[in-house]
Every structure is written in structure tokens, then in C-alpha cells.
Design brief:
By secondary structure, the chain is mainly beta. It is built from three helices and 24 strands. The relative contact order is 0.13.
Length: 360
Amino acid sequence: MKQKVFKNLICLFFLFILGCSVPNPKDSPENDDTDTTKPTISISSPADGAILTNAIIIQVAASDNVSVAKVEFYNGSTLISTETEAPYSSLWNLTAADNGSHTLKAVATDTANNTSETSINVTVAVAIPYISTFDDHPLSPDSYWGGAGSDETAFTSGVVTYYHTSDAFSWSGFLYSNMTDTTTAGFTNQYSAYTIDASNGNPGGYNGSANYSISYVALDWLGGTYDPIPNTIMVTRGDSSGFAGFYITNTTYAYLSMLNGDGFAKKFGGTDGNDEDWFLLTIKGLDADGDATGTIEFYLADFRFSDNSNDYIIDEWTWVDLTSLGNAVLLEFSLTSSDTGTYGMNTPGYFAIDHLTVTE
């Protein structure tokens, strides 16, 4: 080491006489800026032309004369993941991938920023679920997704997107839930479906499914009309020829309010049972051009019968047939009630649905 320093000093002293120069530390092999060799890369799995029906692991072989810094995985121009350690692989779960042709690309970058890429073509052919069971969204026990303060805007179950709005203190639209409280009255229990199946050890969604959807129809307070603001759902995946139907029941909040009355809404039928009360869900269908395809009315409660023994409040999952709406791709849901006041409907504007079915 001392000899090397001494030599450098001599070179500096006799720089113009001997023509020697001071070594540049950048010229050392470990700091070589002249690496222009690109890495090599290939996709080993899946095979080019593969037909994919389930989630896959994309596997890549990459090497370099110095070192591979990273490998990026793409579906078209959409980044799937970035991996920095061999073996280079990435999970593609196909959740957001439409059926059809896709280009999978892998890009390798070495430590000198040289890049190489390779690509293959695959076909996604995932069986699309045409029934919204809402069980495709896992929940912790006795919980729900969305609601006031959530800032959520929508979710998709099966081939249908359910729209949701919220601010710090309120929400409207659709959310999903697995809550099973059929006894607690009032606003604090707004996320539970009411069903007599709960007393038989079968609470929650239709036919024992864990999840279901709750819808709350808000009133137009801002516009001062206090009219219901329709909630919407839309077919956003697959090829649909219309809606077949869905199962519906009341929420615990709405059911117990109509059954017993509360501080905001009356007991349906009144004290003697003769008041002709009703709670009505109106469903409007629209096609891909936005034209109306029809309207369906379903009474969640009806006390208009001359024989009071026929009066009812829906208390179990009940099928609503939507086939008369034809080739609708969008549905609007609105609620009205016989119990209204200065600020619109008094009956809690909630209902629960499950197993909404789209016709293939």
C-alpha cells in the first residue's frame, strides 16, 4: 500500500516529464461503468398460448453478467408486481382480468440499468359467477363493509357492481354484512337482516350463506324535496341478457320499527290494526342505452287487506322475479311508505337482498 502511494506521488511530481497519470478508482473492475451487457430473460411458466382458468404463478428465468437488480411482471401495460430476488415469480389471481386474450410481459433490469424484456400471449377463460352471494367478500364475524365514514364508493359481487356513497355521518346505496342481530331495535342495528330462520339456527344470508347486502335509500334533504334517491346496481362483467331475480327480506331496524313503532315511525296498522299501512320497494330496469325496460313493485309490508289476518311484514328470504325487466343491465331501487311526514318517509329506508341472479 505504501509503495502504491509513493508511486502515485512520483507520478504527480514527474507528470509532465514521464507522462504517467494517477489511477482513477472508477477504473477498478468493481466500479465498471462500461457494462452494456443486457440481462437475459425468459418466461418459463405459463406457456405461450396457454388457456388460464384459475390463478397462476408466473415464473421467469433471468440472469446477467454482473447482477440482476429486479424483474417486473406486467399484464399488458399494468404492473402486476416487482421482484428483486431469485427465483423470480409472481402470483396473478385473475381477479381484475377480463376473459379473452392477454399479453404477459416480464422486464429484467441489471445493476447498470440495462434492460431486457420478453412476452407471451395467454387466454383468460375464468368461469364468471352470475349469482351475487356476497360470500366472495370475506368478513370478520359480526361485521360489515362500508357505511358512514368509510369513504367507499362501490363493490362487485359476481358480475354486478353495487354502488355506495358515504360521508362522515351518513351513507346510502349498498354494503355487505354478516350481522345476525334480530332482536335489537333502532338505528344502531341498521346492518342486520331480519329472518325467522335466525330462530332456527340459520341466521344471516339466504339458505345459510354467511353474507348478504343491506341497502339504505336516502332522502333528498339537500334539494328540500325529501323524495327517495334511488340506489343503483349494474352488470359490469360478462355477457348478460337481463336479471333473473333475487331474495329479499327486511332489515331488523325496519322490521321492528314497523312491528312496534319507535320514536320516529308509527306501528303499522295502528293501535287497533286497521290502519292501511304499506312499505313499498320499486325496482326500475334500464338497458345499455339508458332506456327504461320496466318497473316492478314489491311490498316489504302490506296492511291494506280487509281481513287484518292477511296483513304482513316480510320476515324471511323471499324471491323477487325480475324477468319482466327484459334486457336490463342497470337497476334502480327506491322505497316509499304510507308513514310520511314533513321531512319525507318515517319508516326506516332499508332492505336486505341476497343471491341476486343475472341471466347469462
